[in-house]
Amino acid sequence: MPEQHNIEYKQSWRDEYLKWICGFANAQGGKLFIGIDDDGIVVGVDEYGKLMDDIPNKVVNHLGLVADVNLHKKENRHYIEIVVPTSSVPIAYHGIYHYRSGSTKQELKGIALQNLLLRKIGRKWEDMPIEGGTLKDLNEGTIQLFIAKAVEKNRIPSAAGEMRIDVLLKNLDLITEQGQLTNASMLLFGKDLMKVTVTASFKIGRFGKSSHDLLFHDIVETNIFDMADKVMEVLKTKYLIRPISYKGLERLEPLEYPESALREAVLNSIIHKDYSSTYIFLRVYDDRLHLWNPGSLPEELSIDELRKEHSSYPRNKNIANVFFKSGYIESWGRGINKIIDACFEAGLPEPLIEEEQGGFSITFLKDIYTEDFLRRYDLEERHIKVLLFMKANERISNREYQELFNVSKRTASYDLQLLLEKNLILKIGSTGKGTYYVLQRGNKGAKSAAKGQ
Questions:
Q1: Which keywords does this Swiss-Prot/TrEMBL entry list (predicted)?
Q2: In what order do the strands lie in the sheet with 7-10?
């Protein structure tokens, strides 16, 4: 059995593996096997009798944990299983806090350590009280807007409009038992977010060909309940274009990226952001739009699982609850699939979804014909070059293909047929000199390439 997020194999024991036990305890628990190699094959362990005494004592003495240590035997080879429970309190090894994330062990420092300490005592950053914060620090207009939307969606009673603000916030878990405003209440409805964090703003930049070529930028500084609308307004008026097309006599001017998908992505970045960290960044390029927010996925989910039916695991549950009640989001974990479907319907490829630099990113593409995108799929170098050539020159013939790559007609025909089968290009004409090939720009090509077909 291969290693997993909660299983680690070691061929022999070393005291430094107490760090791994520490990491399991601070995460979701796990098992450490001694005498098994990385492929899950039992290689056996020497002096297993002594280790059965030493390991439990070292775990207790160095970590303050009680772990089950079991001896097993397979094909006359002994191996040891260490079962590590999840600790209800933070665990340190020689003053350093370790954490098991995925299949790696991390040393927690700064904000990451702060969040672990809060989580272990049943608190989150959004729940922390604001010293000296009062109802006067909140924007009453934004609160009334929330009430109107939530009542319209039948997610709070109509009588909420007559309710005292402090009672409403109490019902939304945005005030502590002692009557103090929380970080979440100020983020959602506050007049000045600097009272809780200097990085609540949403940064938008227009770039040239590279991330070093910043042409102009904007910073959206408002409470986060109003933020998605303000971000979309700035995008539509300053950063994105509306290509004109016609359906019969009807003039169509949709955004170059589907508006519903962009809005869903912007909302997700605001709701699931780690607000104890840095800003949200939205970078607009000629051929793509890249949105990144700090805060990795919850341990229960992976990038692949986001595309499947899954439950919702909000980082900021009280913030997410306000957006749900107002009808901005659902609570079914369907956000990513809605984004992907909207892109396909617009004839665009599936967005690139990744975890990077301690955060979550989504990249919208205008088309699939970029070098970075094409390299993700089963294409040879020559195939990538011809697609980029066609993008720049609109079309190519079989003869031009032969001359461009110095290949035979048979090879050119084979390559072009392969690209046809992958729905990356279209053939115009049947046979003869007038036949040429163009890129498949529509929905079919986007879907096929996104699936790696």
A1: ATP-binding, Helicase, Hydrolase, Nucleotide-binding
A2: 7-10, 30-34, 77-84, 68-74
